[in-house]
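dude i think i finally got it to work??
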Amino acid sequence: RPNVHVIFGAGGNVTVHVGEDGIVVVDSGSAANARALLDAIKAISSQPIRMIVNTSADLDHVGGNAIVGAAGIGLSPDPFGDGNHATVLAHENVLLRLSALGSSGAESPAPTRMLPNDTFTSRYRSLYVNDEAVQVIRQTGAHSDSDVMVFFRKADVIATGDVLDLRQFPVIDPAKGGSIQGEIEGLNRLLTEFVVPGAPLVLKSGRTLVVPGHGYVSDYAEVVEYRDMVTVIKDTIQALIDKGLTFEQVKAANPTKGYRGRYGSDKGDWTTDKFVEAVYNGLSRKK
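look at this
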């Protein structure tokens, strides 16, 4: 869109919305990439960064909050300082999770400026900025307990965070409140926000665009395909559980067959086996 841009390679995808009030950024990438991300944002516009919206507490989405936010001026009063910092908006669970970093000794505590300074727990957080209605939609329980999606209504662009990750099977983190049931609910909720052209307009360029947490910009048909894939695998694993199969037996039955080549991986942080295990454990607990 003329006033909406996507920056890849900063960690998670970063959406940049530009207008008369300044810049709204969805996610801030990792700490290691924050300076490069800030340079990329400045190449798009010299306007000040007014707000960062975090779609989860994952460090590849919030790590740049301090550096990117320090280049901005808040839309609302800053409880952590003198106001020379962009507003950082997130679900309250992002603040709770980042504040708890270091309590177990596994990770260093998050610096204060990485923390959100404006949080919410309601179903929506709506605002009007850059002559645009913006809805921040709570979708907790999909990837994690901190998920939100950001809908720029006039631009017709939705930034989904890791509710949608077109590179791979959805990353479901049960330790942080994620579940297969919440993932499917989140994808179905996303699909309700699309404006789908009717048959006479099928050749028109206008359509709702989606910026996933990782991967390429997509549209309605690709999200439907992804939702259907997740649902088929969930139903397949549920049927195997209902037959009394153990996790090892379910894994051996290859419930991701037909999708493994496109979305699966046998190495890296999120393997096919980890996905199957997350789905299996979530459905088993449901019983």
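The chain has nine helices and eleven strands.
im so relieved honestly
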